[in-house]
Amino acid sequence: MDIQTLRTQHPDHWKKACAIRVLTLDAVAAANSGHSGMPMGMADVATVLFEKHLNFDPTVPKWPNRDRFILSAGHGSMLIYSLLHLTGYADMTLDQIRNFRQWGAITAGHPEYGHADGVETTTGPLGQGIANAVGFAMAEESLRARWGAKVMDHFTYVIAGDGCLMEGVSQEAIGIAGRHKLSRLIVLWDNNGITIDGKVSLSDITDQKARFAASGWDVFECDGHDPVDIDRAITAAKASPRPAMVACATHIALGSSAQDTSKGHGALTDAKLIADTRAAYGWDHGPFEIPADVRAAWAAIGARGRATREAWEARLATLSPAKQAEFARIFAGEAPAKLAGAIRALKKQAAADAPKLATRSASEKVLAVVNPIMPETIAGSADLTGSNNTKTADLGVFDVDNRKGRYVYWGIREHGMAAAMNGMALHGGVRPYSGTFMAFTDYARPSMRLSALMGVPVVYVMTHDSIGLGEDGPTHQPVEHLAISRATPNTLVIRPADLVEVAEAWEVALTQTSTPTVLALSRQNLPAVRKTHTAQNMVARGAYVLAEAEGKRQVILMATGSEVEIALKAREMLQAEGIGTRVVSMPSMELFAQQDEAWRKKVLPAGPVRIAIEAGVRQGWDRWLLGERGREAKADFVGMSSFGASAPYDRLFREFGITAEATVAKAKALL
Amino acid sequence: MDIQTLRTQHPDHWKKACAIRVLTLDAVAAANSGHSGMPMGMADVATVLFEKHLNFDPTVPKWPNRDRFILSAGHGSMLIYSLLHLTGYADMTLDQIRNFRQWGAITAGHPEYGHADGVETTTGPLGQGIANAVGFAMAEESLRARWGAKVMDHFTYVIAGDGCLMEGVSQEAIGIAGRHKLSRLIVLWDNNGITIDGKVSLSDITDQKARFAASGWDVFECDGHDPVDIDRAITAAKASPRPAMVACATHIALGSSAQDTSKGHGALTDAKLIADTRAAYGWDHGPFEIPADVRAAWAAIGARGRATREAWEARLATLSPAKQAEFARIFAGEAPAKLAGAIRALKKQAAADAPKLATRSASEKVLAVVNPIMPETIAGSADLTGSNNTKTADLGVFDVDNRKGRYVYWGIREHGMAAAMNGMALHGGVRPYSGTFMAFTDYARPSMRLSALMGVPVVYVMTHDSIGLGEDGPTHQPVEHLAISRATPNTLVIRPADLVEVAEAWEVALTQTSTPTVLALSRQNLPAVRKTHTAQNMVARGAYVLAEAEGKRQVILMATGSEVEIALKAREMLQAEGIGTRVVSMPSMELFAQQDEAWRKKVLPAGPVRIAIEAGVRQGWDRWLLGERGREAKADFVGMSSFGASAPYDRLFREFGITAEATVAKAKALL
């Protein structure tokens, strides 16, 4: 539908959509950067969605049963900022719009979770939003099954562009959604045929409708500028028993001289272009000026959801007080009160039993205790269930006919899994953890970074955490992945050494509220190293003295996970030669860095020779070996400086020199 | 087709395929680990492929015009090891098979490029092989167009499993191949319906044939055990004008009690199971024993390609000596002799002009000189052509009707792009470089790791390398990505500071033969810092003294890329206070680490206070700040310890404290 027809046939709609378009033009011009074309192209679809379908209430933005709206094509951030402003989200003032992309504004270049109410997830890295949305929809299905439709019953809407659909993660997301018949998930595809480099056909000829249908989606089409047609298509999509994709035929940068071109994708800042576009729109108001009638029309849209929200609150109030408290707890992301006691009991038993276990198996033992008392956990694995040890007996399998099941067979889709976990955690009411091999964090990296950037407390159960996995060889052996995870801001990396430390690690991970955790767990069996029970969670201190030096303290050995055993052996050998040696277990550098200086100095006093032992690269260790300001100690490292190899694991440790003998030699060389 | 029918109707074929199956059983049993089911399931398809279609010659394994065979489902490594052994690759002895997955053997758990002849690429991380194959096929198309079919004219065959097809990267690969009508690419899908966790239907209901067809592939089917049907399907696939996928219906772990189960995916080591399976096969030979008639039959298959290879050599010999030398050069991956002179001339001019330029623009200027003298380069970008500055005027666009074009519009597919670059480099005859934003190295990580593990000299042009990109905000601002790249073994990271350093960086990158390079380039303009011409490539030294201290040397400032400017300003301020300050430009830590100790001590003598300045995380710097054994210097760091933010870039540098003033303050605090 062209602009003239639209203005004539749907004047009220046109003005509302136009408000989005001109706010976009004005904000991008003020910032002298940004993306104009997408909001200009999708304004009609978004207007119809917000006016006729989306359940939301700007006065209570985080109402748990709201529909979720996810702008997967996050570069078009002015679309969502305009919508939030026009519908009356209190924090999205006109000043924020004027300060688009400026320091301190909540109107970041791409929508950032936690900045503005109504932004459900951080988008911009393409494909993430659509994959998050799968997690949102799964969380909704799970909660609806377990709490009933009167408490949880909503849709998740996504606006996705060609970029989102070209990224591989979108295929993983489409596959998961199709398999699980997530009928409350609706993707509105901004089918404008343009990418940054030019026409989509420069790089892709995929029939997207056929592609979605191939994975079990229902597919609809509409003229993305005709409000009646848009409404019809969304209505049909909502009625579909499968996830639905609506191909919205749109014109990028509608009405400007850059319409239907890649120039229109970016920042349209030329004054004449903007003036001409306003004229084409018949919009004769000044920059950032929204006439009263349009404001009122949008305000009415914003007010639409209040009654629905209040009705939901009334329904929630009919639950028993205990149920209401539980609902509040899981949406607040608080661990249950009994978690601490359960972990303590498990630790006590573990210290007494001192089992020889792979830490991945230890993790399963802890989860067997945790899952029954934390019904909010949703678990899974990227097709490595038996290897990641993430499935406990009580969980049940999440499936089309068992939405109460809490275990997800993600398939061979690490990236989609991580993105969906982010979506689940952002939805609230569930606490996701899932696993793959540590080396394949690579596949999930873009979403793991977003976990950290958004501060969502998901748990990545990364097993097979070193050359200790043995024969599968270097493709499967992480070497740099601990360093990679540690290099990422706001990421908690924990590499526990035995069952006691694993229990402590899980307690730390499950009580996080704004930080994701990477648990690095061994494939191979490890001896117990914590055989004396302490009520205190020592992993929470990041590092602690596991074995004190006898006699004069000349050497401090630091290690994590499977290498703590080596440190203890090396200590025995050094002590036998009269060299006083302390062993520090350092399951988490991040937690250690958060301790006060007194603790850090107590654990790592300046002076003694320091050797760190970890079957990964050295990068990241120097801070603790050498001291942040330097000159604290002579130091050396026992670990990897190359990729691994395929062989039985004990042979690999020997060949790569990660042994007690090598540790002793390096320590003595520095004494 | 069941075993009994197969044995009866195709006894000769059956015995050949059986040899693969029993070698697999025997090797996995000996290793007590590995994956039996896939080779047992795909033995018939592979036998027909090698017997009837694949052009190869075990006596000259790297013959450039051979067909390429890629086992994307790399866990089934015994399939390819068996094939290589049976067809007569000299290095693949029976002892190597007996030593499957043992230290020092070329029969690693997953096929490793560079270990065994005939292994064209490292596979195991799923989806990589099929995505590599796209690059192989593109290289073939490009070379065929430019050198003629008499020199280059071959197919690329892939065996892919459900895991490969579930990984998102496969969608990117399928999209690229479909768009470019890569008709010489044939994917044989091992459609066995089983993954590690159970049936494929646990996690996926995708109609793979429809999915491939949606992206422009031709799709075929066959009974993956019936040699006649397999032959028919492959023959049809070869004749197709589009890339072809053959859905091969197979039984995982055929003939064993684990057939058609997820148990069959892994290591079948039970003695009774193996004995029963041998009996079902009618194979009454001992472990690792191949009867003479079967050996002879396979030897004949191995001998099949010799004449074809010799005919090709004869055709190649008809080229002019200069052409032959050029062909040899590009397949050896050697830079042309005139590269050095061209770079030197450019550097001289740049030192004289001292332009203020973003290093991404500087890179384009260098490429404008390089590309005309290196016809083997193939360039591209993941839909950021104008931002990555990877396209120079002379390249032309690689397209269906212009296979000579050397610029690829990869689309929004960083992962597929990186994997295809690996494939191109492995194919030989072309030297790929391509770009995206530095932050989106995350998307390409699994393939970038494989570049390093395989040692393929691709070049990643990663622009927008810090918060210096400004308003796009934290999703687009790399913070940890330099550390991530540096943590990866065998990866050269270069972050040049101006046009001269960019020219030197490209010379280093383009003369690598077994190491990939990550070029980190700025979005923002930077002043020239190398204004005096030196013939020597200083970037190749890793770090060097850019500005010497005047008076007593009390401080050494180290910086890379855009922060060298800040170091120079801080030096001025410190010198003004009488504090002698050296500035070290350190474009590459890896290259610096490779220098002899004399150079390293000359550049970084012990004693003076050291401050490093880089708009990324500190991880990786401590080695140079503190000395590897510690105690070399007091030191501090000016950089990032959190994610970035959305604002103009100068504001960001100020807000995050990456300034000359902050540098001076930190230096003085340590003096």
TrEMBL record, chains A, B:
Its EC number is 2.2.1.1. The record marks H35, H265 as: Important for catalytic activity. Residues 357-529 form the Transketolase-like pyrimidine-binding domain. Substrate binds at H35, H265, R360, S387, H464, D472, H476, R523. One of its GO terms (cellular component) is cytosol. It catalyses: D-sedoheptulose 7-phosphate + D-glyceraldehyde 3-phosphate = aldehydo-D-ribose 5-phosphate + D-xylulose 5-phosphate. Keywords: Calcium, Magnesium, Metal-binding, Thiamine pyrophosphate, Transferase. Mg(2+) binds at D162, N192, I194. InterPro entries: THDP-binding, Transketo_C/PFOR_II, Transketolase-like_C_2, Transketolase-like_Pyr-bd, Transketolase_bac-like, Transketolase_BS, Transketolase_fam, Transketolase_N. One of its GO terms (biological process) is pentose-phosphate shunt, non-oxidative branch. Binds 1 Mg(2+) ion per subunit. Can also utilize other divalent metal cations, such as Ca(2+), Mn(2+) and Co(2+). GO terms for molecular function: metal ion binding; transketolase activity. Its cofactor is Mg(2+); Ca(2+); thiamine diphosphate; Co(2+). Thiamine diphosphate binds at H75, G124, P125, L126, G163, N192, H265, F440. Pathway: Carbohydrate biosynthesis; Calvin cycle; Carbohydrate degradation; pentose phosphate pathway. The active site is at E414 (proton donor). It holds the Pfam family Transket_pyr. It is an enzyme of class 2 (transferase). Belongs to the transketolase family. Homodimer. PANTHER family: TRANSKETOLASE (PTHR43522), TRANSKETOLASE 1-RELATED (PTHR43522:SF2). This is Transketolase. The gene is tkt.
